[in-house]
Structures are given as structure tokens and as C-alpha cells.
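Sample intake sheet
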Amino acid sequence: MNTVTTSLDADGLYARYGKPLEQSHQGEYAAINRGGQVIVGTDDVAVMDQAIQAFGSGNFIFRRIGSSYVDKLR
């Protein structure tokens, strides 16, 4: 069963798993699933494609590391 990550947990997921990456990956893109698995890269499309393959559509948050916005893919 797929569990969709809601915007309510997006900030918590980023704080826990994305924020520690800010020093070494500032400006790169991260896809983070509920289990804390993270895909990081400089190419937003490549990171998104990898995340869909690894986690399934709608099962992760996508964010630019160090940025204040959050994208949700459904």
C-alpha cells in the first residue's frame, strides 16, 4: 500500500534528514521519503526520476537544500 507524504510531514522530514545536508550540499536537490532515505543531486530532473523509481510517485518530498519551499509530487 502506498502512503502519500503530506505537506504536514514535509517540514519535519526536511528538518530531520535534509537540514543536516545544508553544509555539504547547499543548493542541490533532495528527495526524502518517510523512512529517511535521501537521494541528493545537482540535476533536479534526475533526482526526481530516481526518487520516483526508488520510492514511487507521491511517496517523498522534493526540496532544494537550503531553500524554504517544498514541492509535493502526486
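Comment: The chain has one domain: 7-72. Helices lie at 7-18, 22-25, 44-55.
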